[in-house]
Amino acid sequence: QVRVNFPPLGNERAVQVLQGRMKGIQGHCNSCYMDAALFSLFSCTSVLDSMLFKPFPLCDRNVQNILRDEIVNPLRKTGFVMARSVMHLREQLTEKGQYSSFTTAEKDPEEFLNLIMHQILEIEPLLKLQSGGQEEQECYCYQIFMDKQEDLVIPDVQQLVEHSFLSSNLKLVEIPSCFIIQMPRFGKEYKMFSKIIPSLELDITDLLLDSPRECCVCGDVATLECL
Predict the structure, then answer these.
(1) Going residue by residue through the chain (227 aa), what tens digit of pLDDT does each one get?
(2) Cβ neighbours around 64 below 10 Å, total
(3) Of 2.30.30.40, 3.40.50.300, 3.40.1110.10, 3.90.70.10, which CATH number belongs to 9-118?
(4) pTM for the whole thing?
(5) Measured between alpha carbons, how far is 175 from 225 in angstroms, rounded to an integer?
(6) Which of 48, 94, 127, 128 could lock onto 173 through a cystine, CB 3.0 to 4.6 A?
């Protein structure tokens, strides 16, 4: 356990701490979905640090302490988290979430995020989405669903998000404080893309509902949208 709180890693410090052998979160017993999610959420950003410090009900404080002292702080201090620390968290999630397979089976990252953010730590949903004028939907992360595109051989995240929103007729109701995106399925049986290029910045202008946008012909404020 590391009880001293460390800020997220950035720039040269991130390279120094995270690069090399025995770095990252050690995998064990189908933990890859949780390892990847935890690394993405906490290693180099503080946007969800409220999960670590917000005063939650006493019955859930144990999960928060494990997350902060056994996973996030060691990751930010040394760049390495042992598998037994993640297993400790998985055991607590099994107990809280009443899912007997959390310690053994591979889960969907969204299932993990919903359990820890909604049921255990009671965080407000991060995203508000609307589809085709229907009622708003609230969620914690967005999973990219799309048909195979022949022209997208090695896409970047920007392209995938735009294609997915367009094919599902979705819009963001408001600018999210945190936009967690789950990439297309990449498992043993099926791989949609061999590689995905990370977009270091994400332009959500075209994804926002009722957002003023520029006409691509004249440059004035657009009044029509051609999908």
Answers:
(1) 888 999 999 999 999 999 999 999 999 999 999 999 999 999 999 999 989 988 866 557 888 999 999 999 999 999 999 999 999 999 988 876 556 678 888 888 898 999 889 888 888 999 999 998 789 999 999 999 888 777 888 999 999 999 999 999 999 999 999 999 998 876 667 788 888 999 999 999 989 998 888 898 999 999 888 77
(2) 20
(3) 3.90.70.10
(4) 0.86
(5) 20
(6) 128
